[in-house]
Amino acid sequence: MSQEEKPFKHPSFYPGDAPETEHPFSLYISVWILLFVLSGFSYGVDYAEVEGYLRWFLVTIFAFLKAGLVVGVFMHMAWERMAFLYAICLPPLFLLALVGILSVEGTWVFHVRSLFMTLTG
Amino acid sequence: MPNNHVSHADHVPDNLKGLVADWSSDVQAFKVRWSKAMMWIFLVSDTFIFGSFLSAYMAVRLTTIEPWPNTSEVFALHVGGSDIPLLLIAIMTFILISSSGTMAMAVTSGYKKQRVKTGVLILLTALGGVGFVGMQIFEWSKLILEEGIRPWGNEFGADQFGGFFFMITGFHGLHVSIGVVYLTTIAVRVLQGRYDRLDDYQIVEVAGLYWHFVDLVWIFIFAFFYLW
Predict the structure, then answer these.
(1) Superfamily assignment of B32-227 in CATH?
(2) DSSP string for residues in B79-122
(3) B90 with A43: Cβ contact below 8 A
(4) Domain ranges of chain A
(5) Distance from CA of B42 to the nearest CA of A (A)
(6) Nearest-by-CA chain A residue for B108
(7) Phi-psi region at B100: left, alpha or beta (left = phi > 0; alpha = psi -120 to 50)
(8) In this predicted complex, what is the ipTM?
(9) A with B: how many residue pairs have Cβ under 8 Å apart?
(10) Average pLDDT taken over every residue of chain B
(11) How far is A78 from chain B (nearest CA, A)?
(12) What is the pTM of this model?
C-alpha cells in the first residue's frame, strides 16, 4: 500500500501526540493547593464577616480565579488550539447579557413591590 | 495529500451507516477527537442550564421585600457547643476539589497507559463523589427535618430561598451522582484492560472533563449561593 492510499486520519486522532501527555503530577498538585488556598480565602471572607460590595467583589474574584484554574489546567483548555478555545469559552459570555437584563428587571420588581407595600401598608 | 477533507467520503456508503460515518469522522474544524469535542459541547449546554438557574436566583433574590435568609446561619454546623458557619460546605468543597485533583492525575496516568494507577485514581475520584453526595444528603435532611425549610417557605427569611436551594443544589447533586456511576464504569473498564486492548485512553480524559465541570459548577454555587 503506497502513502496515497492510506485512509486519512488527522494527527490529533492519535492520543500519543496530544501535548497533555507531558504534564507532571506536580503541576496538578500545585493547582490543587492553589484551589484550596483560594477556597480558604472565600471562606475567610464569610468568616471575617466582610459585608457589602467588598464581599461580593472578593467572592466573585476568587470564584472566577478558581474557575480559570479548573478550566485552564485540569480541563487542559490552556493547551487547546485557539479555534476550539473560543468556540467553547465565548458562548457562555452571553450569560452576562442575561444577568444584566435580569438585574434591571429584578430591581424594577423590587421597587414596584416596595411601592405597593407603602401604599397598602 | 490532496483533498484530505473530502477523500474519506468516497468510502462512505449512502445509508445510515454513512450518515454516522460522516458525522463522526474526525473531519472537522476543531482538531480534537470527536468524543472530546462533543463532551465540551455538552458541557457548554450544561453551563447554560446552571447559568440560567443562577441568573433566575439572582433575579428573584433582587425582588424580595423580606430579607434573604442569612446563609451563614442557615448552614452553620453545631460543633462542640458553638456554631461554625458553613463548616459542612467547606468540607464538601474540600472533598470535591480533591476529587478533581485525583481525576487530573488519572488522566495523566491514562496517557502514560498505567492501567492500575489510572483505575485506582478514578475509583478514588468516584469515592470523593460518593462522600460529597452523602454529605449533601445529610445537609438536606438537616434542613428539611430540623430547620423546616421547604421549597415554599422557611423561618429564616424570604420564602423563595428553599425553592432555589433545593433546585440548584439538587440538580448539581444529580450531576455528581451521575458522575459517580460514569466514573465507576470507566474505572472498571480501565482495570479490565479494555483501553489497553484499544491502545487508547482518551475516554479517561473525556470522563475527566465531565468531572471537572461538576467541580466548576460547585465553585459558582459555593460563591453565589452560599457566600454571596
Answers:
(1) Cytochrome c oxidase, subunit III, four-helix bundle (1.20.120.80)
(2) ETTEEETTHHHHHHHHHHHHHHHHHHHHHHHHHTT-HHHHHHHH
(3) yes
(4) 3-81, 90-121
(5) 10
(6) A21
(7) alpha
(8) 0.84
(9) 172
(10) 89
(11) 14
(12) 0.86
